[in-house]
Amino acid sequence: MTDDHLRHRTEPLPHDPPPPHDEGDEEEEEESVAWSDIALILFVATGIALNLTGVFTQIFGVDTCAILTLVGGYGIFWDSLTRLARGKLGGDLAVTIAAFAALAIGEYVAAAEVILIMLIGTALESFAVGRTRGAIAALLRLVPERATVLRDGEPVTLPVHEVQPGDRVIVRPGERIPVDGIVRAGASTVDQAALTGESQPVDKQPGDPVFTGTINLLGRLEVEATAVGEQTTLAEVIRLVELAEARKAPVQRLADRWAEYFVPTVVALGIATFLLWWLILGRSPADAARKMAAALIIACPCALILATPTGIAAAIGRAARRGILTKGGVFLEAIGSVDCVVFDKTGTLTTGEPVVASVVPVAGVTTAEVLRVAAAVEQGASHPIAAAIAAAARQEAALPAATDFEFRPGRGVIAQVEGAPALAGNARLLHEMGVPLPDPIRPEIERLEQAGQTPVLVAHDGR
Which position among 137, 196, 265, 450 has the lowest Cβ density within 10 Å, counted as fewest Cβ atoms? Predict the structure, then answer.
């Protein structure tokens, strides 16, 4: 996704994204929900085990498994009856019918086991959906809580939701950009990977667009806000992830449709089983009722209810955590039939972590010397390429002393290395500093660029 893609807008979010919150608070909240689910599952499972072993079978004359069924299944029963009141039939209604049928004929352990299976399935579904919500929360954390705005020429720090379109926002190196806007003053390099997936930071000059949640790496920027809050590109991305959870895949819609027919069919078969054993086979009504309950329990659609939505939610969440935004289950299912993917340009597929692939010295200069000078100049920069050069140089030898760093966004870095001027950057920087580019190097630069690599030119003491 490029800047041109990001400038395209669809409808805004119907609500403001919630303010970012502390990651630890979110983890504690998710953890507390998970522990409550686990506690209920353990409670029901332990109660069933104690009942089956005869250690603890009754409370005030009531079978413990009957109590476990009612306590553990309360949420399931309530949801199924609420949906039924709205005229909707779901698989959870079949579970409710099966559980109460088992209770009615005294099969308390069977009733509790049905509820235990549903509790485990529901906990797994909550876990998968929770991880998807975690991906959305990670996107929300990209939004800074406060922004520095120029008011009457003076910088004022405000909560980000108070920033208005047209405000001039100051973004210092290392800060996340709090609004969508246009650079009006300054130059820098911006890491847009969290939003666009671009493997390399993008140079920004006056007139270039910037986006909420991206990171200003080098220079001070003055940005005119064009979109804030629910109107930003990041908010749109969050909305797309939320819609993806609600947009059902064909297999998921099929499961929902089958659930609507499944419940009446199961009830009809249960009644037919009762009539068969009572009227045709001549068994007692109590025996026929047990056969009916057995049929209802066996037909309990736990897998039908949980498997598909859990799988879809888990897949969308896992993809989002890896930076892949899916518009819905329908597209997730469709990609399973893809057997060929065509990428439009060199460098689209990367690991996002640059490495030094080769060093090409001019005559009279060693590879180690080029690498040492480049790393000394780049050691004060936060650019990913600078980090890659520094990492490669550390494997060779200690870096020489460097002072007087000057970052020139879109061009490179200059500094004093061992008392002499040095630079690392592109051809524009060499031209600005009056350093001639040797003719033998020009074909190498073209070759590297055609191979999708990023050449970094290094000069020391005018050569």
Answer: 450
